[in-house]
Amino acid sequence: MADTEATIELKSNQPTRGVPRSTTRDRLIEAAVELFGANGFNETSMRDLATEVGIKAPALYNHFRSKEEIFIEAITVTLGDFHSEVTKRDDPNLSGLERLENIVSRHVIYQIDHARTAKANDRLIESSAMDRLNHEQREAIRSMLRKYLDTMTDICTQVVRDAGREPKDVRLVALAIGSMCDKVLSWYRPNGRYPKQKIAAHFSKLARSMLEAE
Question: I need a labelling partner for 3 at 20 to 30 A (CA). Which of 66, 70, 107, 118 fits?
Answer without folding.
Answer: 118
